[in-house]
Amino acid sequence: MTTEAKKTIKHGQELLARVSARKTEIELTLALVQADTMSGQSAQRAKALEEALTSVESLLACDLDELPGMAAGQLSRWLESTKNLPATVLPHATPQREKAPADPPNP
């Protein structure tokens, strides 16, 4: 296997890992939106997230062992077009780090 072929495979694996992470993030955001019955915009927000998931699932239907250049380009564009989708759709649901429990006060 040539060095170029190894680079292409590595790039494909990295791209798929980023797509998978974004897809999971969108799925989690969709679950939050669907649970948010207080907002009148929940249906619109859910639709935007569902459309993003549908489009990536169709892209992932190709042979992922040998990611063709066209599919890789489409996945890259999907990543770019959805990079702010979870934050835009549900801005108050940005992940926060858990704080370490505070030490009890000394008496």
Explain what this protein looks like in three dimensions.
With 107 residues, this protein is an all-alpha fold. The chain has one domain (3-89). The chain contains four helices and no strands. The chain has helices at 3-35, 42-59, 69-82, 85-89. The longest helix is centred in the N-terminal third of the chain and has 33 residues, at 3-35. Residues 93-103 have low confidence and may be disordered.
Short précis:
The protein is mainly α.
* Tally of DSSP helical segments: 4
Give the helix level as a range of percent. Answer: 55-70%
The number of distinct structural domains comes to 1
Average of per-residue pLDDT values: 76
Number of strands: 0
Along the chain, the helix and strand elements come as: HHHH
Question: Which regions contain 5 or more consecutive residues with pLDDT less than 50?
Answer: 93-103
Structural class: mainly alpha
Overall radius of gyration? 19 Å
* Biggest beta sheet summary: none
* Beta-strand fraction estimate: under 5%
Question: What's the N-to-C terminus distance?
Answer: 68 Å
What is the approximate shape?
Answer: elongated
SSE topology sketch:
Elements: H1 3-35, H2 42-59, H3 69-82, H4 85-89
Helix pairs in contact: 1-2, 1-3, 2-3
